Amino acid sequence: MKADETLAKARAAHQQGRIDAAEKGYLDVLRQQPQHIEALGLLAAIELQSGRAVSAEKHFAKALRINPNSPVLHSNRGLALRALKRNAEALASCERALALRPDYAAAVYNRALILQDLGRHQDALNGYDRVLAMDPRNAKALVNRGLVLQELKHYDDALGAFDRALVVEPNNAETYNNRGTALRNLMRPDEALASFDRAVSLQPDYAMAHYNRGLVLQDLKRPGEAIESYQRAIAYQPDYPAALNNRGLMLRDARRNEDALADFDRALAIDPNYVEALNNRGAILQELHRDDEALEAFTRMLSLQADNEKGYNNRAHAFRGLGRYEEALASYDKATALNPAYAEAQFSAGLSRLLLGQWEKGWQQYEWRWHGRASRRDFTQPLWLGDQPLAGKTILLHAEQGFGDTLQIVRYVNLVADLGAKIILEVQPPLKALMSQFTRCERVIAFGDEIPPFDLHCPLMSLPLAFKTTLETLPRPISYLSADPALVEKWQAKLGPSTQRRIGLVWSGSGEYVNDYNRSILLSEMDKVLTQPFEFISLQKEIRDHDRAALAARPQIRFFGDELTSFAETAALAQCVDLVITVDTAVAHMSAALGRPTWIMLKVEPDWRWLLHRPDSVWYPTATLFRQKKGGDWPQVIDEIAAKLAGEF
């Protein structure tokens, strides 16, 4: 068959979408006429569409040696060079096409694509606008214009471009996906979700749209559906590291830590240099008390990004988990050297210094809690941090964190009063009755009460800084709270005569506390204590669902639940027992502040206030500390308490 007949049949096959037949035909033509420029150009176009950019560029270049003045060949070679990431050459090729034919829309469009890849967004935008001036219904130019506008954070204009593209091509799944991203960036999550839903209804196997749908479901606080959407993305594209990483994050939030770790591992198997997945893997390993492996993950992360301040901060967390506190401080300091305004690292370094007893700088860095950790009160009156006289002034001392923090730091009220100040003390409502015993306060009020006029204010947790507290100057009275005698009498009558020594128990704290899973234990884990010959009094108001059956099966524990309507009631009940055994929660502070013998169970990396290694508390003379020796090992702590009860109590 002659070359012309073969070419005609190949072109017909190409137009019909029979690509293999077309390619075979073009190759047959070239075997007959190796310099056949049309066959070279069409063969190169097929190779480019098939992802064979190297071969395509080779054939476009050969064709241009035959006809160096073809704008079509220069423009198409530019696309092949773009696919090969040779963008400077690609741009030059498109510009050569435009020099030959300035109104060649395809070359203008291809040049804009390359400029977009090069990050020259305004130049790319100008290019797409030029294409649209020639062809207002060019859907591809509209979509890419929208993508450039998204890069420039012009989300409203991007949305307009995608909507115009959908008028031209109303069933384009990719455009609906891009539109959804613009709506998400505009914080219109419900509309974004509808757009992603439309994308996956048009193309059910569209993995990226399922992934983006998962992102917006996360925004909408619908974690179960988000996980399902990420699962669909992974089902359609198993090598999708971002979807695996995000599903891992959602599984971590659901406390499915082993499943989350598996997802991060899969993401890293696909992309070993995926920094975010390395960071998340390290975080989940810490939660699993595998701090040595966490340290390896963060160290690997920093080998890829040596200037990653987050990596240094998280590596410091891992050092802390391993008890390597000085190395932790060095890593925090590296993070803050890279970014002095990095609040989390500054605050975490402060906590570490407080834990180590380095209180002078620790209290200063603790003030970084206002940058994301705590909500600063917006008072017009000045903040007092010990820097001006208080005589004759009225100062508002206000609680700001948990019940335990308030109970611990109200010891400073009398020190403030000694400076001649009139004090208004504002606390959480359940603490108001107990705190009303502070006779040196003008008023004790609860959150939500009207605040009387005042001159200065100080958050309670800033008082140690204001008084420049050191281990030597810490106010450490045997007790600074007392129970209401009338309430104590009421509880003694309710408890009745005692034939055994009474022990108050607290085995879990508030589930709202972010680290509660590390400090609380199951009631069933305390059986070595509960089998000893004592009368046990629950000082907990709430019982978690997973503990209800255990409580019902242990009649030796007396539980009063809703009768503990305030901390004043709990304090009175605590006054009726001989010993309080508790995890690190508010009752630990209340009991010790009452001067009651208090045994406190601590996780391996304790809260800053308990310092390290010592069995006593610098804050509470009547407290004894029982510390985990390794993460999660509560049986070891329970064994020590049981032995001490049997031998000494």
State the name of the first-level CATH class of one domain: Alpha Beta
Topology-level CATH name of one domain: Rossmann fold
Number of DSSP helices?
Answer: 33
Q: Could you tell me the radius of gyration in angstroms?
A: 35 Å
Can you tell me the CATH superfamily of one domain?
A: Glycogen Phosphorylase B
State the shape. Answer: elongated
Q: Enumerate the spans where pLDDT stays under 50 for 5 or more consecutive residues.
A: none
Euclidean distance between termini CA atoms: 107 Å
Strand order of the largest sheet: 7-6-5-8-9-10
Q: Work out the helicity level.
A: 55-70%
- Total count of strands: 10
Structural key phrases:
649 residues; alpha/beta; Serine Threonine Protein Phosphatase 5, Tetratricopeptide repeat; 10 strands
